[in-house]
Amino acid sequence: MNVDKAKKRIAKQVKKGFNGYPLVSLEYFGKTPETATEVVISFNLDENAEPQKQKFVSESDAREDETIQSALVKIIERADAKTVAEVEGVTIVARQ
Asked: Which of 15, 71, 76, 89 is the residue whose CA sits 20 to 30 A from 56?
């Protein structure tokens, strides 16, 4: 799937707001606000459930990685998520 198409599909789901569970949330991490080298996708079946998490890592910007964005869309679809949330921007991680 084209990276722009995948990003639009995710953004459309995020814009719908909270519609109940299951809930999928996305958070991007990087060393600078301009480049997200990791993305963590969390799945909550219901309000009291422990979230299941999966991390994707990219050498470049994960937001522009076609493989990662396509995988995120497929996870959202397969989870039959009623709500998709995304943490805005890039969360800065300390250099190791």
From this structure: 15
